[in-house]
Design goal:
The chain folds into two domains: 4-277, Aldolase class I (TIM Barrel); 294-385, no CATH class. Helices cover 44% and strands 13% of the residues. It has 14 helices and twelve strands. The radius of gyration is 25 Å and the shape is elongated. The structure holds 3-methyl-2-oxobutanoic acid (KIV) and zinc ion (ZN).
Length: 386
C-alpha cells in the first residue's frame, strides 16, 4: 500500500446507536464489535459509559474481548463522565477516552451560558482528568464546523499541550461545504504549532448529504483519522458512511491515502448491522444498497453486457456484494431480455427475441419488475405457440 494510512474510527456502536430504534444490548454490541474488528477498523467507539449502566457494561465487556482494535469510550468534559469512561475501559488491551466540549459561539452561549476563555479552560481540564486513566486521549471540539478557525486553533493547541493525542474536528451539524472543511483542517495544520504531536480527526454529519465529501476533503488536507459508521447511521441524517470513505480511497489511489479495511467484508457487515439494528438500508445506497449493482434501463444494460466497466466502477465481489443484476422493467431492452432468458436456459434466436420482446413489454408495463417466474411463463407460451 503506498501513501499515508488513514485511521478508521468506527462509531456505529455510539453515534450510530443514537438513532431512534437502533438501541443495542450488550450481546448485540459485542457481536458487532467482533465484526468491526474483523473488518479491520482501527478504533471502535463502543459507547458512552456514563449514559446508562447497560452502556457501561457494553464498553467494559467489549474491552475484555477485542484485542486488535483500540476501544474508545465517549464522555463529556465532566469529571464523573471521564471517570466512568476510564473505569469501563480498564480491561482494554488498548483503550481511548474521547472527551470534549462545544466550541462554537452558539454552543458556548446557548448550551453553556459561558465564554471562550472558560470553555478553553474546561477543555484543558477534561484532558487532564482523562490523563489519569490513559495517555490515549481524543478531544472533540463539538460543532468545530461552525467554530471560528482562530479560536479553534487555540483550543486545539491547548488540548494537545495538555496531552490529547487525537483531536476531533466534528462538523456536528453537517453545515460545511467540502472546500470549507478541507480549509479548516489545513488552517489547523498550518497554525497550530504542536499539531505534529496529534492526529486530526474528521467527524462529519450528513445533514446536507456532504459527510463523505467533507471527510475526504479533511483527509486530503492532512487529517489522518476518519470517524464513520456502517450504513452511514448516526444522529439525524447520519454520520459519514464507512463503506463510502473506504471505497473513495480505494478507487482513487493517486490521492495518496489508504485504509486497512478489508473491503470484501463491507456488504456482509452492512447486512449484519442493518439486521441487528432493525434499520433497513436504502436501496440506492452507495456500495451496500440493493440496487448498487443493478442495471435496469436498456441503454445501461446493453453497455454493461458488452463490458461491465461501461457502467460499473467497482466489481461487486470487491465489496462482498452479490453479482451484478440485470433487472427487467419496461425500460429494459432486447439484449437484457435475451440475457435473462439465456440464464433460464433458453437460447432463442433474434426473431424469437423480437416477438418475445413485444410480449415482454406488455407485461412489463403492468408490473414494476418482470421476475424469473413471469419470464419463464412468457418463454413457455412462446415455445408452445410455434
Ligand atoms: O457530532 C459530534 O460532534 C459528536 C461528538 C460527540 C464527537 O458526535
Ligand atoms: Zn456525531
Amino acid at each position: 500500500m503506498t501513501g499515508e494510512k488513514i485511521f478508521i474510527f468506527d462509531t456505529t456502536l455510539r453515534d450510530g446507536e443514537q438513532v431512534p430504534g437502533c438501541k443495542l444490548n450488550t450481546k448485540e454490541k459485542i457481536e458487532l464489535a467482533i465484526a468491526l474488528e474483523d473488518l479491520g477498523v482501527d478504533i471502535i467507539e463502543a459507547g458512552f459509559p456514563i449514559s446508562s449502566p447497560g452502556d457501561f457494561e457494553s464498553v467494559s465487556e467489549i474491552s475484555k474481548i477485542i484485542k486488535n482494535a483500540t476501544i474508545c469510550a465517549l464522555s463529556r468534559a465532566v469529571q464523573k463522565d471521564i471517570e466512568a469512561a476510564g473505569e469501563a475501559l480498564k480491561h482494554a488491551k488498548s483503550g481511548r477516552i474521547h472527551t470534549g466540549i462545544g466550541t462554537s459561539d452558539s454552543h458556548i452561549k446557548s448550551k453553556f451560558n459561558s465564554n471562550r476563555e472558560e470553555i478553553l479552560e474546561r477543555a484543558v481540564q477534561a484532558v487532564k482528568w482523562a490523563s489519569k486513566y490513559t495517555d490515549n486521549i481524543e478531544f472533540y471540539a463539538e460543532d468545530a464546523g461552525r467554530t471560528e478557525n482562530e479560536y479553534l486553533a487555540k483550543v486545539v493547541e491547548a488540548v494537545i499541550a495538555a496531552g490529547a493525542t487525537t483531536v476531533n474536528i466534528p462538523d456536528t451539524t453537517g453545515y460545511c461545504l467540502p472546500h470549507q472543511y478541507g480549509e479548516k483542517i489545513k488552517f489547523l495544520i498550518d497554525n497550530v504549532k504542536n499539531v505534529d504531536k496529534a492526529v486530526l480527526s474528521c467527524h462529519c454529519h450528513n445533514d446536507l448529504g456532504l459527510a463523505t465529501a467533507n471527510s475526504i476533503a479533511g483527509a486530503m488536507n492532512g487529517a489522518r483519522q476518519i470517524e464513520c459508521t456502517i450504513n452511514g447511521l448516526g444522529e439525524r441524517a447520519g454520520n459519514t458512511s464507512l463503506e463510502e470513505v473506504v471505497m473513495v480511497m480505494k478507487q482513487h489511489p493517486y490521492v495518496g491515502i489508504y485504509t486497512d479495511i478489508d473491503a470484501t467484508k463491507l456488504n456482509p457487515i452492512s447486512r449484519l448491522v442493518s439486521d441487528t439494528m432493525r434499520m433497513p438500508v436504502q436501496p440506492n445506497k452507495a456500495i451496500v444498497g440493493a440496487n448498487a449493482f443493478s442495471h435496469s434501463s436498456g441503454i445501461h444494460q446493453d453497455g454493461f453486457l458488452k463490458d461491465a466497466q461501461t457502467y460499473e466502477i467497482i466489481r461487486p465481489e470487491e465489496v462482498g456484494a452479490e453479482t451484478s443484476k440485470i433487472v427487467l422493467t419496461a425500460r429494459s431492452g432486447r439484449s437484457a431480455l435475451a440475457y435473462r432468458l439465456k440464464n433460464l436456459g433458453h437460447n432463442f434466436d433474434r426473431n424469437d427475441v423480437d416477438v418475445l420482446y413485444e410480449n415482454f413489454l406488455q407485461l412489463a408495463d403492468k408490473l414494476k419488475e418482470v421476475r424469473d417466474e413471469e419470464l419463464q411463463i412468457l418463454a413457455n407460451q412462446h415455445i408452445s405457440s410455434k
